[in-house]
Amino acid sequence: MTINTxxxxxxxxxxxxxxxxxxxxxKYDDTAQASLEKWLSKQAEQGYLPDELxxxxxxxxxxxxxxxxxxxxxxxxxxxxxSDVHERLFETLYQQLSTEIRQAIDELLIAAPGDQRSLFYxxxxxxxxxxxxxxxxYLERYRSLDGSGIDAIESRIVDPAFMDYLYKLxxxxxxxxxxxxxxxxxxxxxxxxxxxxxxxxLDHLVKMHDQYILDMLRKGKQVxxxxxxxxxxxxKKAIDTVLxxxxxxxxxxxxxxxxxxxxxxxxDEKKLLASVDDLHIFKRLEERGYGxxxxxxxxxxxxxxxxxxxxxxxxxxxxxxxxxxIQLIRRLDTGELKxxxxxxxxxxxxxxxxxxxKVKNGKIQRNTWELxxxxxxxxxxxxxxxxxxxxxxxxxxxxxxxDLHRWKDTREAAYEDLQQPFKDQVKAQLILQxxxxxxxxxxxxxxxxxxxxMAISN
Length: 458
What we know:
two-stranded antiparallel ribbon
């Protein structure tokens, strides 16, 4: 069923008024605006942003059966309320900052001597391809942020969604624009920018390590395959030469002594020696050639790996041996340990390095073992077995599912929906359930004896 729209505007207005009155809707007046403004202020304090607040405000008015005002009216009100809330928030954050942190922020906005770009500009760059130089550069940037003292106030920071909003807002400006803001806004924007940038830098560093290891494996594989093809052809010829020499020796008359002079008269000495060398080379290529090529890149890896290992890694239960290995390398680098312990974990060493892992006396070679740790870290960071809590993407599985701030908001509702007691109520609830179960069991399983049987037993 449809209703035809009246041709006369007056009739249309009258019908609209009657429908809204019948549905119980009221006008958007000063009272409704005051109520909406109060509600918007609470929502903005919880971290909701203007775009989302606009839609939520419309739904709020509809639920309250208030006629929606024009979009421009709603937009002006949302922006005004958000501006007031943000201003109060900027002042709160500003008051938390120490003089040292403010000074560190000021230095980020100033270009270093001999450089036209400030560190603030560099921190907004997307990382280049993973090279030793680029990884070292990003590690240095992370260390600069991590040493600025922002950890001291991270636990008292704003809602994550709002912090991400301020981070993206700060990225739109250059250093010159940021300096024009009032102090409370300037330092608040930069604080959120630094906290989020540190997370992004950690993600970049994990990705760059992954790319570097992949590139090392790919190039090593290519070189190994090329050498293998070359010496596979040479070893076929070498086998023929060695077989000819073997047949000559086996068929030599028993009553005639075999001297080298006689042997070299029948076989080319240089050709035979070269053939033996080719066979040895091919045998090593088959057994551990790929591993040797990877180990040749170990000195390059060490140019950034010790600093990379200082990042705040954590491991999920069951992956502690890898985390212990990381801590072990840190102690070796600082000189706290002189040699690898005999019981170091090796289960994660890839098969390509297994033949190179130990020397003849059975001791584990540090370069092979450490290279194996670097390769295992790449896989563990991909799978989530190893993670970096302060990063944005490479966090623990449960933080990806439900972060701490979101859990605080939904905790009480979740316990109520699942009908589960809170932590401080578990013991009392278990005792109550136990007595209830005993009571139910007593009713169902205890049956009184008949009077005649009771008399006999007495």
